[in-house]
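stage 2 :: seqdesign
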C-alpha cells in the first residue's frame, strides 16, 4: 500500500472518529475523557481472548483479538485528534510511525509493552500498536476495512433508535447486525472513497427487509 493511500484512509478514519465523538458530545475535545484507560482495559480483554492462564487449556481467538485492536484504534485516534494537530499532520504521523512489524513471537509481551507505555504517559504509541497488528497479521488495509465497518455500524445503530431502545439488533434471517456487517464490507470496494457511505447504505437496505 502506498503512503498516499495510507494517508487518505487515515484522513477518512479521523473524520469518522471525530463525527462519532461529536455525536456523543459536541465538545468532546475538552471533556477530559480518559482514552488511555479505555485502551488498557481493551488490552486486558484482548489478553483474555488470546489466552494467558497457565492452569487451563486456552486457544488464541485471533478474530476476537483483531476486534479488540480495532476498538483500541478508535481510542487511539481520539487521543491523536485531541492533541490538537491537524488531520493532515496526524495522517503524516501515522504514515511515518505506524510500522506493522515485530520481532516478538509472543503477542502477550508486545501487549504488555504497549499497555505499560500507555499507562506511563497516557498517549497513543503508534510504533507499539504496529507491533500488535503484526502479531495477528493485520495490515493497514484490513485495519481500515474493519474500522470503517464498525464505525459506520455504530452510527447506524444510533440513527435507528439504539439509545432509546427501539433499535432491532436481530435482522432478517434472525442474524445479528454484526453478522450482516461482515458480509457488507466483504462485498464492497474498501478502496473507494465512498466506502463508508456505501456501507451505511447497504446496512440500511438490509435493516429495512422484513
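stage 2 :: out
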Amino acid at each position: 500500500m502506498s503512503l498516499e493511500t495510507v494517508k487518505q484512509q487515515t484522513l477518512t478514519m479521523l473524520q469518522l472518529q471525530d463525527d462519532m465523538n461529536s455525536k456523543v458530545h459536541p465538545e468532546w475535545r475538552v471533556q477530559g475523557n480518559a482514552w488511555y484507560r479505555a485502551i488498557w482495559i481493551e488490552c486486558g480483554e484482548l489478553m483474555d481472548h488470546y489466552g494467558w492462564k497457565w492452569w487451563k487449556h486456552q486457544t488464541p481467538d485471533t478474530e476476537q483479538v483483531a476486534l479488540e485492536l480495532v476498538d483500541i484504534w478508535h481510542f487511539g485516534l481520539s487521543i491523536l485528534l485531541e492533541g490538537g494537530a491537524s488531520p493532515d499532520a496526524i495522517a503524516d504521523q501515522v504514515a511515518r510511525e505506524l510500522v506493522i512489524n515485530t520481532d516478538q513471537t509472543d503477542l502477550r509481551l508486545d501487549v504488555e509493552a504497549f499497555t505499560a507505555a500507555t499507562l506511563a504517559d497516557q498517549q497513543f504509541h503508534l510504533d507499539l500498536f504496529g507491533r500488535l497488528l503484526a502479531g495477528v497479521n493485520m495490515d493497514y488495509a484490513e485495519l481500515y476495512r474493519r474500522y470503517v465497518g464498525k464505525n459506520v455500524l455504530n452510527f447506524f445503530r444510533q440513527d435507528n433508535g439504539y439509545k432509546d431502545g427501539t433499535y432491532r439488533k436481530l435482522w432478517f434471517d434472525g442474524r445479528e447486525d454484526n453478522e450482516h456487517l461482515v458480509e457488507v464490507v466483504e462485498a464492497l470496494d474498501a478502496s473507494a472513497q465512498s466506502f463508508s457511505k456505501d456501507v451505511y447504505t447497504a446496512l440500511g437496505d438490509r435493516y429495512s427487509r422484513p
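stage 3 :: structure notes
- Residues 3-24 form the longest helix (22 residues).
- Residues 1-136 form a domain with the all-alpha NTP pyrophosphatase fold fold (CATH 1.10.4010.10).
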